[in-house]
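Incident log, entry 3
Record: Aminoacyltransferase (384 residues)
Problem: checksum mismatch between cached and fresh output.
Input:
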Amino acid sequence: MPSERPISVRTISAAEHRDHLATLPSASFLQTPGWAKVKSEWRSESLGWFAEDGTQVGVALVLYRKLPKLDRSLAYLPEGPVIDWSSDDLGTWLDPMVRHLKKQGAFAVRIGPPVVTRRWTTAQVKEGIADPAVRLLSQLPPAERSPAGARTVAQLDELGWRHQGVEGGFAAGQPQFVFQIPLRSADGTQRTEDDVLKGMNQLWRRNIKKAAKEGVEVTRGDREDLKAFHELYVHTAERDHFTPRPLRYFETMYDALTADAAAPGERFTLWLAHHDGDLVAATIAIRVGEHAWYSYGASSTEKREVRGSNAVQWAMIRDAIAAGAAVYDLRGITETLDADDPHVGLIQFKVGTGGEAVEYAGEWDLPVNRALYKAFQLYLKRRG
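Fresh output:
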């Protein structure tokens, strides 16, 4: 980003928002203008940061959640804003944003800096799960500590922002811990399919081969295929005991992110794995520039032996490599490494891909009206 100090923040159009994102290597899909249509129950606004010479240097999607009976809102920037987080003076970037949001009726602001703080290798995570003395990822010395991440956290604390801690399970907002497969080497060269496959554990490689031998066919779906995906997703929800989203949510997501994309298939791709005509697994992938995400998945209880879930994941990884993505993101994991915790199975599945556990800075709140913010926190505790 340009070195000029940003001095102003103002509302921008969805087109201006989209155009600025197109100049960047990547940004979270939660910070695209299309995501506002997915979260239609929130009021939304696109913000731009402008340097003294008028150059746009930052962007954000703000979602406003109104308090019951009051004309005041929580202003939420999921995995944003998209600004220069390497700055040694984050107040220059965040203070004008807060002033703008306060004028918009925000009683508090919640942000999710897209800044990595720590990383752990697959080997470290596996050793932690095997060690009964280790219960949390944070008990393991990381393979890498990010100086930029540490600076961000220190500055936010100094500026009065409050970190929203994660207690054992997933955070109420976006996950602080995720699992990712780097698709570029340390020197920036693109890893090949063979490179990534060699990094996977023996079980994953065997399952990918078995799916191919069994004749599992993986194809891209279109909007009409969302119904079949959703039926399998509801089946998965019943089996794994979570509350499924309605079909309309995925239709809205497809429409909003497809319309938002610079190229077909960039933002939203539906993947389907069939065996002898039966849908055995289905997933939704999202990509913004160099970052590819595994977003939603579903699998059949029948025919699990044909390994449709591994086949569809491998198809998404190969597609991300072909698109020149720098990272394939399997999204959230909990911090637990306790072998008796039901969440650890999810980590073990993702660890098999040979990637790394990554901690982000997490979500941070700034109370604008302290009394309303305190009441809001009490309301959340009672509801929880």
